[in-house]
Amino acid sequence: MRIDVVSIFPDYLAPLSLSLPGRAQESGLLEVHVHDLRDWTHDRHRTVDDTPYGGGAGMVMKPEPWGEALEAVTGRGAGTTNDATDGADPAGPVVVVPTPSGEPFSQAAAAELAQRTHLVFACGRYEGIDQRVVDDARTRWEVREVSIGDYVLNGGEVAALVMIEAVVRLLPGFMGNPESLAEESHGVEGLLEYPVYTKPPEWRGLEVPEVLFSGHHARIARWRRDQALRRTAQRRPDLVARLDPDRLDGRDREV
Ligand code: ADE
C-alpha cells in the first residue's frame, strides 16, 4: 500500500515513521509520503487560505493549491474523469478528507481502506477546504469525507494519523497473530473486548478471576463472552442493538 498525506503542517505527521506504520514501512508493506501543501502555491507568501464567501468567522483553504496537490500525488492530471471502469477500480486511489462533517470512521471503514493500494489523505485546517476541491476530486477518484468522532480538532492531521494506524494494522502480513484481530473490540462479533489479566495472580488485593486458572477452554471462552456482552450492554447499547441475532445463543440472551 502507498499512502500520501498532504498538509500545511507536515511535521505533524512525524509519528508515521515511528512504531506501527514505521514497522510496516521497514517490512516493505507500506510506503508513506508526506507533502507540504504550500509546495503547490505560486505566490511569494505561499498563501493557502482566504476569507469565506458569504462572510463569517475564520478562513477557508483555497482550491488551487489543493487541486494541483491532488493531481500531483495521484498522478492524474486535469481532464481525466472517473468513468465507470475507472473510479470503481479497487486499485485506483482513494482520497480521504478528514472532517468533522464526514461519515463516521469505523473498523469496517478501516477494513475497506485496507483493501486498497493507494490512499491520499487531504488534511484541511481552518474552517475547511473550499467544497469545489472535493466536488472536482469526486469526478476523478473515489473520495471519502470521514470524521473520527463527534468533536472538533484543529485540523485533519491527527485524524489522518488515527485512520492510518487503524488501516495499517489490518494489512495482510502485518500483524504477528492475525487471530487477535478477530477477537478484539469491534471485531467480527461486534462486541467490545473482554477484560484481560496477566501475572501476578494477586495485585493490590485484587485477584484474577478464578476461571482463568482453570485450563478449561470452553468455560474460559464462555466467561469471556459473558464479560464482552455485559461490557457492551453497559457501555455501548447502540452496538448491542446491531448484533447479528444469528450469532447469539441462548446463554448470550441471559447475559
Ligand atoms: N478535523 C477536525 N475535526 C475532525 C474530526 N473530528 N474528524 C476528522 N477530521 C477532523
TrEMBL record:
Keywords: Cytoplasm, Methyltransferase, S-adenosyl-L-methionine, Transferase, tRNA processing. InterPro entries: Alpha/beta_knot_MTases (IPR029028), tRNA_m1G_MeTrfase_C_sf (IPR023148), tRNA_m1G_MeTrfase_TrmD (IPR002649), tRNA_m1G_MTases_N (IPR029026), tRNA_MeTrfase_TRMD/TRM10 (IPR016009). It is found in: Cytoplasm. One of its GO terms (molecular function) is tRNA (guanine(37)-N1)-methyltransferase activity. Its main location: cytoplasm. GO terms for cellular component: cytosol. Its EC number is 2.1.1.228. Residues 1-241 form the tRNA methyltransferase TRMD/TRM10-type domain. It comes from the Bacteria. It catalyses: guanosine(37) in tRNA + S-adenosyl-L-methionine = N(1)-methylguanosine(37) in tRNA + S-adenosyl-L-homocysteine + H(+). PANTHER family: TRNA (GUANINE-N(1)-)-METHYLTRANSFERASE (PTHR46417:SF1). Homodimer. HAMAP family: TrmD. Specifically methylates guanosine-37 in various tRNAs. This is tRNA (guanine-N(1)-)-methyltransferase. The gene is trmD.
